[in-house]
Structure formats: structure tokens, C-alpha cells
Write a structure and sequence with these properties.
With 344 residues, the protein is an alpha/beta fold. It contains 8 helices and 8 strands, in the order αααβαβαββαβαβαββ. The longest helix has 24 residues.
Length: 344
């Protein structure tokens, strides 16, 4: 018994001596033993009871007010690629889901647009635009401006794709105008079928002026009296809304033809040589003119749209229907078959 007690005492003394050595020579800054206990979180201070004078009601923080815009036109996702005259027959999402976000805009979303208030005046907007543009540029000023912004290495460039002139693009244009007099716009895809429409919406919605146009390249000038601090309020769309459902473009039986005649026209178009081969995101500036010339001698025209995509094929058909004009009778295997219609 005595030997065991002595051995325990010696072991205890050796352990204490080792602890003393460790405390002397081992720095606590670098000492990190395994399985070190975690520091307990500090307990929150106890709330003291308030007196009747201190128990005043806290000020209520009101939610952010919706953005108010004085622009006199309806807000749409795309201004150049939608036709307000064609009414949709259905919607793919409820109308209450506004792409501007819940409660962020003082306009109601109808499923296709956020209409402007009845108090907005187009004439006042035109007067303000003319004041901002100021005096017309001289030929020397236009040449200097074009030479600065028309080249492909210009840093002030916006790419316009198949969405056309979108709502958020208007805000991008004004952001470029903060530090530059003009902005270069490169147009590609389906919108290039109607460049006049693109120029019209760019000038009307942004308030600028097109000073240069070459095929699919545009230079949009901001105006002499433009002030970035007084730019219009443009609320941004947070996401792209689902497109509504429109009436069917291609009918089973074309207007003015019987079922057998329509079937024969489609077969003739599929076996006819292709007038043009369109590429994806290409430049389609001369397509309308070529189709009109072909309709002077042919009754049916085929456009080869391989690798373009079926959605873009239908967009091209919709635009050609109004621009040529003609009747699309078939979309199959990325081929567009157009009929010129019956001559009056």
C-alpha cells in the first residue's frame, strides 16, 4: 500500500513539473492542444424594465415607395418585336407577376405591358426631346462624331439581338451617355429585317437621334443639351416575362385556297430551290427586297434557315408577312415556305 501511494505521489509531482515547464518554455500564443474547448457565446444582456416615460412607441419604417416614371409610353419587354395591335389569346403566367417586381412600379402589369398613365402627354415629351437635342449638328460635327464611334473597337457599344429594342436597353443607352456623346449599336438577328423600325423606337424611347446608319451599324447621338443628372427615370425589369399566347400563324387551309391547293403549294415550296440561306444571328437587311423580287416571277418561295432555330424561323415569318407582304404556309425542318397570295 505504501509503495503504491509513493508511486502515485511521484507521478503527480512529475506531472506538475511538466506543466510548469510547459508554462515557462511553451508560448501560449502558438499552443493549440487538440480538442480544445470551444468558447461559450456571451449571454445577451438582460433587458431592464422601462419606465412609463421611456416606453414611447418606436417609429414605424414605411416600405419603399414604388418608382414613378413620367415617360409617356407603355413599358414592354421589347418595343420593336411586339405589335400592340395583335391581342393575345392567353397567358403563360398570372398577370399579377410583374417583371418589375412586387410593388416597385406605380403601373399595373397587364401581361404584355405596363400602360402609361392617362395624364402623360406625348407633346410635352416631344418638346423636351427637341430642347435636349438642341441645334442640328453641322456636317463637320457629324463627321467627327461618326469617325469616333463607328469603328468596331469602340468601347461605347451595345449589341442588339433577337429581342430587339428592349426596355432595359434604354437604361443602358443613358448609362453610356453619362461619359460619351454617342453610342454605337450593332444589330444582329431577326430585328435587322426592319431597320427602320429599330431606328424609330431607339429615337422615340431614348430621346436621341440617329446620326449614322450603315447596314446594321447605328450611331445614336444624345443631344447638345443632354444632362445626365436630369435623365428620365427608367425602372428596370428584373426578369424576362413569359411571352403570351398569340393566334396561330399558319392556318391548315390558307385564305383563298382549298385544302388540296394548300397542300400542293406546300409540296411545291419544299421541292423548290432555296432563295436564300440564312444563318443564326445574321444580318437580314436585304431579305425583304430579295423576296419581293422573287415574287414577281414565282408564286412560292423557300428560305433555308438550317441551324437558325424554329423560334427564330417563326419570328422571321411573322415579320415577312407584314413587310413583303406574303402568306406563310409552312414551317418545317427549319424551312420557311412563303406564298405571295392571290393578285387582285
Amino acid at each position: 500500500m505504501l509503495s503504491t501511494r509513493r508511486s502515485l505521489a511521484l507521478a503527480k509531482d512529475s506531472f506538475l513539473s511538466l506543466r510548469n515547464l510547459q508554462a515557462r518554455f511553451v508560448s501560449t500564443e502558438y499552443y493549440d492542444p487538440p480538442f480544445s474547448p470551444l468558447s461559450k457565446p456571451a449571454k445577451p444582456a438582460k433587458k431592464t424594465k422601462k419606465t412609463e416615460q421611456d416606453q414611447s412607441p418606436e417609429p414605424m419604417t414605411s416600405p419603399t415607395a414604388p418608382v414613378t416614371s413620367d415617360l409617356p409610353f407603355d413599358f414592354r419587354y421589347s418595343y420593336s418585336e411586339t405589335n400592340p395591335a395583335i391581342k393575345p389569346i392567353g397567358f403563360r403566367e398570372p398577370k399579377r407577376f410583374s417583371p418589375f417586381g412586387p410593388g416597385r412600379l406605380d403601373r399595373n402589369w397587364t401581361g404584355t405591358c405596363a400602360p402609361a398613365s392617362l395624364e402623360s402627354d406625348q407633346r410635352q415629351w416631344a418638346v423636351v426631346r427637341d430642347k435636349i437635342l438642341g441645334e442640328a449638328l453641322t456636317e463637320e460635327e457629324v463627321a467627327e462624331l461618326v469617325e469616333r464611334y463607328r469603328h468596331s473597337d469602340c468601347s461605347r457599344q451595345i449589341n442588339l439581338g433577337k429581342g430587339g429594342v428592349t426596355h432595359n436597353m434604354i437604361d443602358d443607352i443613358h448609362n453610356h451617355w453619362k461619359k460619351a456623346e454617342a453610342v454605337r449599336i450593332k444589330c444582329l438577328g431577326v430585328p435587322t429585317l426592319d431597320m427602320d423600325n429599330i431606328c424609330h423606337h431607339l429615337e422615340e424611347k431614348s430621346g436621341g437621334k440617329i446620326v449614322y446608319r450603315n447596314i446594321n451599324i447605328l450611331v445614336l447621338y444624345r443631344g447638345r443639351n443632354y444632362d445626365p443628372k436630369s435623365r428620365p427615370t427608367i425602372p428596370l425589369m428584373l426578369w424576362k416575362p413569359y411571352p403570351p399566347i398569340y393566334p396561330r400563324l399558319v392556318k391548315n387551309v390558307a385564305d383563298g385556297l382549298t385544302f388540296e391547293e394548300t397542300k400542293e403549294m406546300r409540296n411545291r415550296g419544299l421541292h423548290a430551290p432555296a432563295l436564300m440561306k440564312l444563318t443564326r444571328n445574321g444580318v437580314y437587311v436585304n431579305v425583304v427586297g430579295r423576296v419581293r423580287e422573287e415574287f414577281e416571277t414565282e408564286e412560292v418561295v423557300r428560305l433555308d434557315c438550317t441551324h437558325v432555330g424554329m423560334s427564330d424561323c417563326k419570328r422571321i415569318g411573322v415579320k415577312l408577312k407584314d413587310l413583303v407582304p406574303c402568306v406563310p404556309i409552312l414551317f418545317k425542318d427549319e424551312q420557311i415556305i412563303l406564298w405571295r397570295g392571290k393578285k387582285n
